Amino acid sequence: MNTSNKLLHKLKIGDVELENNLILAPMAGITDLPFRLICKEYGAGAVCTEMISAKALFYGDEKTKLLLNTNGEKRPIIVQLFGSDVEAMKAASKYVENIADIIDINMGCPAPKVVKNGDGSKLLLDIDLAVNIAKEVVKSVSKPVTVKIRKGWDDNHIVYEELGKRLEDVRSKGYNITSEEQKKNISEENVI
Ligand SMILES: Cc1cc2nc3c(=O)[nH]c(=O)nc-3n(C[C@H](O)[C@H](O)[C@H](O)COP(=O)(O)O)c2cc1C
């Protein structure tokens, strides 16, 4: 891919160098191995798995492990984990450490079946827990850790500035913001 285009440039996340800054977003049910292979083939700088349940990995769920199949895949690969249980997140991040070049923590998923367990965007309502999860994952692995967050849970809980600052303090290598609140699909492009 031609990176002389002004919008495209090389990107470094931690010690991982990406050929360009086009990163395939994690999409449950979509960003499986064949889809990732195609996106890489067409020039993505990095690709990401769909969100993977830390708890399921923690309990050794075989179907979940299949989501981590990266056979034949070119690096770098981002593995996204979701969960709000600190021990499960630590164990899962260790489990994926040798598969992933970068580990991304999902703090943005609004799906009811995810938030009802306190996972995904529900963490935006408990910043201390969110930061602690990031801190413990960063401590557990030697790979760069990124965090995907939303602006906030709703209009009354816009937390991206505070959470972003605190995540910088725990030295997660980057965070990316989905510019919507969890409760409304307001797209505010100027937020990043
Ligand atoms: C079908 C589908 C599945 C998704 N699954 C995930 C996921 O597993 N993890 C995640 O962080 N975001 C997930 N997302 C959100 C996307 O990664 C992305 O943030 C969202 O589509 C907004 O991107 P856009 O502004 O480029 O449209 C999903 C989105 C879609 C449409």
In words, what does this structure look like?
This protein has a single domain (11-191), classed as Aldolase class I (TIM Barrel). It contains seven helices and seven strands; from the N terminus they run ββαβααβαβααβαβ. The two termini are 26 Å apart. The strands form two sheets. It has a five-stranded parallel β-sheet with strand order 3-4-5-6-7. Helices cover 30% and strands 21% of the residues. It has 192 residues and is an alpha/beta fold. Flavin mononucleotide binds at residues 25-28, 30, 50-51, 80, 106, 108-109, 148, 178. Flavin mononucleotide is lined by residues 25-28, 30, 50-51, 80, 106, 108-109, 148, 178.
Throw out a few tags for this protein.
single chain; 192 residues; alpha/beta; TIM Barrel; five-stranded parallel beta sheet; two-stranded antiparallel ribbon; 7 helices; 7 strands; 21% strand; disordered C terminus; binds flavin mononucleotide
Give the helices and strands as they follow along the chain. EEHEHHEHEHHEHE
Q: What percent of the residues sit in helical stretches (DSSP H or I)?
A: 25-40%
Instruction: Give the strand line-up of the largest sheet.
Output: 3-4-5-6-7
Instruction: Give the name of the CATH architecture.
Output: Alpha-Beta Barrel
- Poorly predicted residue ranges: 185-192
CATH superfamily: Aldolase class I
In CATH's first tier, which class applies?
Alpha Beta
> Given the C-alpha coordinates, what overall shape results?
globular
> Which strand-content bin applies to the residues?
15-25%
Q: What is the overall number of helices?
A: 7
